[in-house]
Specification:
Helix content is 34%, strand content 24%. It is an alpha/beta fold. The strands form 3 sheets. Strands 13-12-11-14-15-16 form a 6-stranded parallel beta sheet, sandwiched between helices. The chain has a 5-stranded antiparallel beta sheet with strand order 3-2-1-5-4, with helices on both faces. Strands 8-7-6-10-9 form a 5-stranded antiparallel beta sheet, with helices on both faces.
C-alpha cells in the first residue's frame, strides 16, 4: 500500500521523511519503517517511545524556518539507557528533508506505484547521498546507473523476484515498492464480519467485503476496503487473485458451504477460514467430499477459525482471534518462501 507515497505527494509544505535504515539487534520496528514529519503533525510511526520522540525532535529542528533546503543525513541510536529504551539494539535512521514542492524522485515512485508496477528504491546512507529507482527489467528510472554498485543492483533484482520488503545492503537501504499482494475476501457483513473487517483494514492489505443483503454495509469505508452487494456472493470467489485469503462468515450455512466449495476447487488460495464449531466442520467435510472435492483440499479448510486460547464470543474478540491467526499463517508462509528463495540465490552465487 505504501501510504507514505500518497501522503507525501499531497503535502504542500516542507517535511522530513524519517526511515529506519538499518537495524542491529532488537528494535521497535524493522528496516523500512517510515514516519513523515511536518510542522503540524507526525504521520506514521517508526516504533514510538524515546526513539520516535527524539527523531521527531530532530526533524522539527529542520522545519523551524519556512523555507527548507532539501538535504539528507543519518543518525545512529543505541537503544539503551542513554536513549531511554531497553531494546538493546542499534538503529540507523535516515532523515530526508524535502521542500514543499517534494522531491524529484517522488513523481516516478508515485507513477509506478499508481500503475501497479514494482520497483525498488535504493538510497545510499553514507555521504554523498544518492537515490535510484530500479525496475524488474534492469533499467533505472531515477539516478545514474553507472553510480549504482553491482551488489545493489543484484540485491534489488532479488528483492523484486522475492517477497522481502526492505533490507540494508552495505551502505544502501533498499525498499520494494510494489502493489499490495495481501488480498482478503470477507464473506458476510454481520456483527462478526464487520468487526473482522475493522481489524484487518488497519493492515497493509486489500479487502473485498461481500454480502447478499441490501443496505448492510456502512456508508463510509476505508480506502482499502471494497464493499460488494451481490445476489450471488459465491461467484465473487473467482474474482480474487491467486494466493488470496478467504474468510467465510455469512448468515447462511448453505451459502457458507457453496463459498467454501468454490474456494477449495480453486486450489490456488492461501487460506480458507470458516466460522463455526467442530461439528460444523465435520458436517462440511462430509458435504464437500460428497461434491467430489479431494480430501487433500478439504483438509485445508480451517474451522473453527481464530488462534487458540481466546474463548470469548464477542464479535470484537472473535475478530482479533481471526486476524491473529491470519497473520500467523501469513508469516509462516512468508518464512517458507524466504527460505526457498535464500537457497535459490545461494546456489546461483556458487
Amino acid at each position: 500500500m505504501n501510504k507514505w507515497i500518497a501522503e507525501l505527494a499531497e503535502l504542500e509544505e516542507p517535511s522530513v521523511l524519517v526511515t529506519v535504515a538499518s537495524v542491529r539487534g532488537s528494535s521497535p520496528r524493522d528496516v523500512g519503517a517510515k514516519m513523515l514529519v511536518t510542522s503540524k503533525a507526525a504521520i506514521g510511526t517508526i516504533g514510538g517511545g524515546q526513539l520516535e520522540y527524539q527523531c521527531t525532535q530532530i526533524a522539527c529542528e529542520k522545519l523551524i524556518v519556512d523555507t527548507v533546503a532539501a538535504s539528507t543525513f543519518v543518525r545512529r541510536f543505541a537503544l539503551g539507557a542513554n536513549c531511554g529504551q531497553c531494546c538493546g539494539g542499534v538503529v540507523e535512521v535516515l532523515f530526508e528533508v524535502l521542500a514543499a514542492s517534494g522531491s524529484g524522485w517522488l513523481a516516478p515512485v508515485k507513477e509506478q506505484h499508481d500503475e501497479r508496477v514494482a520497483v525498488v528504491m535504493a538510497t545510499s546512507t553514507k555521504s554523498p547521498f544518492k537515490k535510484f529507482l530500479l525496475t524488474k527489467d534492469g533499467s533505472v528510472l531515477f539516478g545514474d546507473i553507472g553510480d549504482c554498485p553491482d551488489a545493489v543492483l543484484s540485491a534489488g533484482q532479488a528483492m523484486l523476484d522475492g517477497i522481502v520488503d526492505a533490507q540494508s545492503t552495505g551502505d544502501y537501504l533498499l525498499e520494494a515498492i510494489r502493489p499490495v499482494s495481501f488480498n482478503i475476501a470477507v464473506f458476510g457483513a454481520g456483527h462478526v464480519g464487520a468487526a473482522t473487517v475493522d481489524v484487518l483494514r488497519r493492515l497493509e492489505c486489500k479487502i473485498r467485503w461481500i454480502d447478499s443483503r441490501r443496505n448492510i454495509f456502512p456508508v463510509s469505508l476505508p480506502e482499502n476496503v471494497l464493499a460488494i452487494e451481490s445476489t450471488d456472493p459465491a461467484r465473487e470467489v473467482l474474482g480474487m487473485p491467486a494466493g488470496s485469503w478467504f474468510l467465510v462468515m455469512t448468515h447462511s450455512h448453505p451459502l457458507d458451504q457453496e463459498i467454501c466449495a468454490r474456494v477449495l476447487r480453486r486450489e490456488d488460495f492461501a487460506y480458507c477460514g470458516l466460522i463455526g464449531s467442530l461439528s460444523k466442520r465435520r458436517r462440511f467435510e462430509r458435504l464437500l467430499k460428497k461434491q467430489g472435492i479431494p480430501p487433500s483440499l478439504v483438509d485445508r479448510l480451517v474451522c473453527p477459525i481464530g488462534v487458540d486460547g481466546i474463548r470469548g464470543k464477542e464479535p470484537a474478540e472473535i475478530a482479533i482471534a481471526v486476524a491473529a491467526e491470519v497473520l500467523q499463517v501469513r508469516d509462516a508462509l512468508r518464512g517458507e518462501v524466504a527460505a526457498i528463495d535464500s537457497n535459490e540465490y545461494s546456489i546461483r552465487a556458487i
